[in-house]
Write a structure and sequence with these properties.
Structural class: alpha/beta
Order of helices and strands: HHHEHEHEEHEHHEE
Radius of gyration: 16 Å
CATH architecture: 3-Layer(aba) Sandwich
Shape: globular
CATH class: Alpha Beta
Bound molecules: S-adenosylmethionine
Largest sheet: 7 strands, mixed
């Protein structure tokens, strides 16, 4: 799937319906990470770095943002966004379904664990998403805050917009019926949820207490 993003990377920000639809998920989701100065946050499937301004503001100059993505082209756009002012952002090119490897000697998470993990519109693109979920948790400390922002079919009157939602997720390579936040609901405590844009944008947040069994 990251290959799809190789081609669309330069146009991603333009085509991503950020203003009318998807930006709302970031604005609702990132505060639920409860970040503070000095924190380390991992943005899994960070793409072009649309979350970085909000994340950097929350962790301040003493904290760190690690953006992970498999697409070098998406990371190139993220690097461009950061320009000169991104000393506390590290970009890591890596397959999110094999994140445990980043704990190996010499890798980014050899000696540290994240205080928070964020997935925005990313888990439902990753195959299999359960591997990305468990791998990301392996980079986090017990007590870390986890936020999943992802997509579902609209409900209620917004159901009329289902064809548009299906088109957007198809173009983005996302499985709209994956509902990857089920893992968060099962494996985290202090879980909260908000549905935006007629239920199409799902924001789930929780606290990860430490290793447990596999996701059902
Ligand atoms: C829809 S974009 C979302 C980007 C960003 N999180 C956002 O909110 O705009 C999905 C991203 O997931 C990345 N991706 C898909 N599969 C991946 C994988 N297995 N490992 C790492 N990144 C992956 C793609 O390259 C793409 O940048």
């Amino acid at each position: 799937m990251p290959q799809k993003y190789t081609a669309v990377a330069p146009l991603y920000d333009l085509l991503s319906a950020e203003g009318p639809v998807y930006g709302a998920g970031r604005v609702a989701g990132i505060p639920r990470l409860r970040l503070g100065p000095g924190d380390l946050v991992v943005d899994v499937g960070c793409g072009t770095g649309l979350n970085f301004p909000l994340l950097r503001r929350a962790v301040t100059d003493t904290g760190e943002v690690v953006g992970i993505d498999a697409s070098e082209q998406m990371l190139a756009m993220a690097r461009r966004r950061l320009g000169e002012e991104g000393p506390n952002v590290e970009l890591v090119a890596h397959d999110a379904t094999a994140l445990e490897a980043l704990r190996a000697p010499g890798q980014a998470f050899e000696r540290r664990r994240a205080d928070a993990v964020l997935f925005t519109y990313a888990l439902s693109v990753m195959v299999p998403w359960r591997s990305a979920w468990s791998g990301a948790l392996s980079l986090a400390r017990p007590g870390a805050r986890i936020v999943v922002v992802d997509m579902a079919r609209p409900v209620g009157p917004a159901r009329l917009l289902t064809p548009l939602a299906l088109l957007a997720t198809h173009v983005g390579g996302s499985d709209i019926d994956a509902h990857p936040w089920t893992a968060l609901a099962q494996q985290c405590v202090d879980v909260s949820h908000v549905a935006l844009r007629g239920g199409h944008v799902q924001v789930w947040a929780g606290t990860w207490t430490g290793p447990r069994g596999p996701v059902a």
